[in-house]
Amino acid sequence: MSRSNWPTESRHKRGYGAEWDKVRKLVLERDERLCQCRHCKAEGRTTIATEVDHIVSRATARSLGWSKTRTEHPNNLQAINTHCHARKTQEEQAKTVKPKRHIGLDGFPIAEGGGE
Ligand SMILES: [Zn+2]
Q: What is the secondary structure of 51-99 as a DSSP string?
């Protein structure tokens, strides 16, 4: 086995490679593998966390103009339980849904307060 034959390129191609693995471990250990989501914190629950979550989600970070370094920094990551993670994702998606506009029969949106 020769070390020089190790593929060095493929590691860079994958976004979630060894680097993410390292950060994930670091965050889980920092948070003592306990869920840091606001629900668990508010209720003082100790829920085992196995996943790592972006506190400011990637989508939000992108819209804020955050760099990848800032988005993927441990400061923006927290240990989270699988179920809590699913719930948080759901909450985030619900939040980003644009307020419903009333569409008139002619297919055009009705202006707020201008109908009557
Ligand atoms: Zn939680």
A: EEEESS-HHHHHHHT--HHHHTSGGGEEEE-HHHHHHHHHHHHHHHSPP
56-71: pLDDT as tens digits: 999 999 999 999 999 9
Domain-embedded: residue 56: yes
pTM above 0.90, yes or no: no
How do residues 92-114 score in pLDDT, each as one tens digit? 888 766 666 777 888 887 776 54
Are 48 and 23 spatial neighbours (Cβ–Cβ below 8 Å)? no
Give the distance (Å) from ligand 1 centre to CA of residue 15.
26
How many whole angstroms from 115 Cα to the centroid of ligand 1? 44
Residue-range definition of the domain harbouring residue 78: 21-95
The count of domains in the chain is: 1
73, two tokens: 């920094």
Q: Give the distance (Å) from ligand 1 centre to CA of residue 38.
A: 7
- Phi, psi for 29 (deg, rounded to 5): -70, -40
